[in-house]
Amino acid sequence: MNRSALRGSILTFTGDPFFEDPRDCCTFIEDGLLIMKDGLIESVGPYEERAAEGLDPAYYPQAIICPGFIDGHLHFPQIQMIGAYGEQLIEWLNTYTFVAEQDYADPGHARRAAGVFLAELLRNGTTTAAVYCTVHPQSAEAFFEASSALNTRMIAGKVLMDRNAPEALLDTAESGYEDSRRLLEKWHRHGRQLYAVTPRFAPTSSPEQLRAAARLWREHPGSYLQSHLSENRGELAWVQELFPESRRYLEVYEKFGLLGPRSAYGHCIHLEEEDFADFRQSGAAMVHCPTSNLFLGSGFFKLFEARRQDRPVKVALGTDVGGGTSFSILRTLNEAYKTARMLGARLNAFQGFYLATRGGAEALDLADRIGSLAPGCEADLIVLDLKATPLMEFRLDFAKTLAEKLFVLMTIGDDRAVKATYVAGKKVHSRD
Amino acid sequence: MNRSALRGSILTFTGDPFFEDPRDCCTFIEDGLLIMKDGLIESVGPYEERAAEGLDPAYYPQAIICPGFIDGHLHFPQIQMIGAYGEQLIEWLNTYTFVAEQDYADPGHARRAAGVFLAELLRNGTTTAAVYCTVHPQSAEAFFEASSALNTRMIAGKVLMDRNAPEALLDTAESGYEDSRRLLEKWHRHGRQLYAVTPRFAPTSSPEQLRAAARLWREHPGSYLQSHLSENRGELAWVQELFPESRRYLEVYEKFGLLGPRSAYGHCIHLEEEDFADFRQSGAAMVHCPTSNLFLGSGFFKLFEARRQDRPVKVALGTDVGGGTSFSILRTLNEAYKTARMLGARLNAFQGFYLATRGGAEALDLADRIGSLAPGCEADLIVLDLKATPLMEFRLDFAKTLAEKLFVLMTIGDDRAVKATYVAGKKVHSRD
Q1: Closest alpha carbon to A313 in A357, A346, A374, A355
Q2: Is the CB of residue B141 less than 8 Å away from at least one CB of chain A?
Q3: CB < 8 Å to B407, chain A
Q4: B10, B279, B404, B411: least surrounded by Cβ within 10 Å?
Q5: Does B408 touch chain A (CB under 8 A)?
Q6: What count of other Cβ atoms lies within 10 Å of the Cβ of residue B272?
Q7: pLDDT tens for each residue of B363-385
Q8: What value, to the nearest 5°, has the Cα angle with vertex A128 and ends B388 and B330?
Q9: Which domains does chain B have, with CATH numbers?
């Protein structure tokens, strides 16, 4: 029996602050005690000496303990080309991405990048992510091996592309299916690893490949599907050309049976009401990647349209590294705030932290395991230092309420605010 | 005679990369030697053992030495409310700014904030800034005292407001003139300090005050004038109401004689061609504050319209702390890139670094003294560490050209990339 404990302020959500008063859906314990046992959370409550006895809790004053962040969309091979200059989506893929991804035919390179990538996630407090590898099965092998060694709960998959990309990055409908099936059977639910069937997006998969992807996904209940939707206007026009029988981009994925619970679509920018309704009805999730959308000039995700009370769509946050330029979910929240602002809306701190934790877990159908600090949940959690930089230290003196403190964290915080990251009860990153 | 030297890669501009090929307007010395003497730059050239003899140069490998950054617009009292939630300009001023600024009646508070503020600037590599204090003369006193002690070249002024703000923050046309005059006579050109007559913006100054501000500015050749222009649509409507005789916002300032060389206007978002032409003709400068403009949902500055080759307007970058959420000019460049992207344009790294250094100096009429690394210039310079974080360290291995390296710095760099800051030849900040 492996028990340990943390002491400090504890924040977790029990409901949805898009629709409920934070007082009704958010638990905040000023001086709390969280006990972990065998990788799970055993109990959460106010600090009591008696309960802590014999556990010698790690004490974090001036900090907030909250669930590990969830990143619903990013590309591990793109870590080497994060912050690439000057293009919109399609040119950016051709100029940078499809060049970088060819390096991942080399398992050694893939292993090195996977190690740096996972370390960076943990440094930023992200304990679960939905990750695109490259077309090469060895890239997914490298990723899962590294994640498995860390015991992180990750969702990932080999990319499927059988057209409109360089020869060296193409599979076929059949080889893509077979390679993915082998990876899925090996890694899905192997420890904490989860597999996502990963057709990059409609333009780089033939109808045959999309059909095969759907088949594989449906054959393995509980597995994931991830792809991109409606990021960029040039992409929209291209999809229209390739799939003239579908009026809306989303119809392409629908037609092939690629929409449903445990499917997650990145970006979702240029949508109409029918699209939102289809997401709601199918149980599919949208992943909001604001940094990337601003960096590539893609547009503004309509978060408050997605989260409309009469037909709320599940939404996770995504950094979309390397289209996004930061691994930090805190910085991503800053960008999400700005994106909402440009549409005349306001993302408050409770909504922000909800999206980053429990909301992301709900979108990925993992809310019973991660995203909350509650007994029985997996002990993936982070310690956010309210005084991580000289500026934060000065600023926090003037923040009175929890809402203000959280907003300062999501506005001027970055990886330095993550003082410690725990995965399944074990400290895997410590800032100092 | 006080001589010292630095060794490392040296970057400086000799012209304008908006209109010239970088090869023709940018000097980059891979292994350079920069010698400083009595606060000025004595020489810049390739490293030679003979030249360095006896100087024991501080050696910075894996780094770029460039001029200190120039921040053309920010508010020192707002450091305590940086990252305040949820409002557009006018409500934001009333809800947060005008509350925070009242604290600066207390000289002790002003001194403490000025110290933190200047330290934060230097930590971020900013060696010159144009700074708004509060309406209280003691706030400007505190700022200049602190800047003077550091020997930083700063431009600042007490804010002028005689209407439409809380009573405790109002001066009068006459008292504002007199207080400003006293401050100007005491601090302008006192060591490296420079004074800016600072009417906050048209809505909070009566016509009498704007007239008095222009008089004071004109009476002291070489002094500065700073204000805000056309940040927000609500502000535009308000100005229209207060000054119905002016069709354009800018006409208000023009009418009172507030446009000319050494005047700098923050934001300048909602402009028409006549406005750009007036700026060009008058020699006034625009200050581009992209972080703030996104954070407050103000809009997108038309940088490439301002920098049109047939009538280029002078442009500096500004963080606009606390409407902006970062003191980092590198992060501000990331936001400037995104802002350009949303308008379909591309800000390249040479243009970015030019705006942050020589371009800012030109906008503030200081290009003969700062913003370049050239003999005779003041030795304000920074050392940018290309491998400041684990992510940068990995990423830089894949950046081949100088353009790529600079772009990575401006995309994923922050205060940590500033390894050292030198002011007038003296190291005033060291990261490690």
Answers
A1: A355
A2: no
A3: 83-85
A4: B404
A5: yes
A6: 11
A7: 999 999 999 999 999 999 999 99
A8: 25
A9: 3-68+372-430 (2.30.40.10), 69-327 (3.20.20.140)
